[in-house]
Specification:
Helices cover 0% and strands 30% of the residues. The protein is built from no helices and five strands. The strands form two sheets. It has a three-stranded antiparallel β-sheet with strand order 1-2-3, with no helix packed on it. Strands 4-5 form a two-stranded antiparallel ribbon. Strand 2 and strand 3 form a beta hairpin.
Length: 100
């Protein structure tokens, strides 16, 4: 498993939210498939990301893994997934919901 023990602001983010928490990324390998599971606990996340939120922007309320070094804006690449076997980004529909 991959453990995330802390979060930092996305490079260039100028907002006031300070998100804290933890995350764990695990993988299971089956006979013909591989699956990844992301479990997380967030504090300070956007409260507008409720269960009934209307998402109008790409990646609104998104939580995902990036390729590259996420501490430098120029080094942040796309979402992490197998580009050989995956034809669409599996992270694009993954969102979090914040408790009120």
């Amino acid at each position: 498993p991959l453990y995330v023990e802390s979060f930092s602001k996305y490079p260039g983010y100028m907002g006031t939210m300070v998100v804290k928490g933890s995350a764990e990324l695990t993988e299971t390998v089956g006979y013909e498939s591989v699956a990844q599971f992301l479990t997380f606990s967030l504090m300070g996340a956007d409260k507008d990301c409720s269960a009934n939120a209307v998402l109008t922007q790409n990646n609104s309320c998104g939580i995902h893994v990036h390729i590259g070094n996420c501490s430098v804006a120029a080094d942040v690449a796309g979402h992490y997934y197998n580009l050989v076997t995956g034809t669409t980004d599996p992270w694009k529909d993954i969102i979090y919901t914040a408790a009120s």
